[in-house]
Amino acid sequence: MIKTVYLSILLTLAATLAVAQNPTGPQPKRARTPEDYKPGTLKDLAAKAASNNSRGNKEETMLVDADISPTRIKATYAGLTRRLTEPKAELIRQWARLYAGALETYKPYEVEVLFDENGTKYWLTFTKTTLDSFWNSKWNHPTDLFVIRMGAVKTGDNWEPVFLVERFQGRDEHMRR
Known about the structure:
By secondary structure, the protein is α+β, with helices and mostly antiparallel strands. Helix content is 29%, strand content 35%. The protein has helices at residues 2-20, 42-47, 86-100, 103-106, 128-135; strands spanning 38-39, 55-56, 62-64, 71-83, 109-117, 120-127, 143-155, 158-169. A five-stranded mixed β-barrel has the order 4-5-6-8-7. The N and C termini lie far apart (63 Å).
């Protein structure tokens, strides 16, 4: 009987020490890997209604979404680029302030590139560094783009999604950031 009590205490103590080795609090952030991006389409990402965790501003001109939905999509460069619009830049700043805690990580996103996915055009946001790598690749072929969704901005009466391209992989190429 006493051996059973000692054994129970010993097992409880060992389990407690083992659990204490794995804190359940905040963990250091790690870079997303290709496996973190689920296959999908821009159409599906754009169609997702704002989640309950979205935060809109008082004028209801932007929705900042906590669910970034890392997605691997395939699209083709549609021939246009433009400077990031101010409403989209503000949405990225607000998202970084609310969810990333590091605005400087998202500050370099300043160029939009038009892509075609199955006949529908989408503006995707790049950093200049990623865009330079893109121009040096076979950009006139369908490309795997690794995107995250920040939310949406209101343009007229419509909501336009804001997607960031974190990396890409062209045909017969290694992944590039």
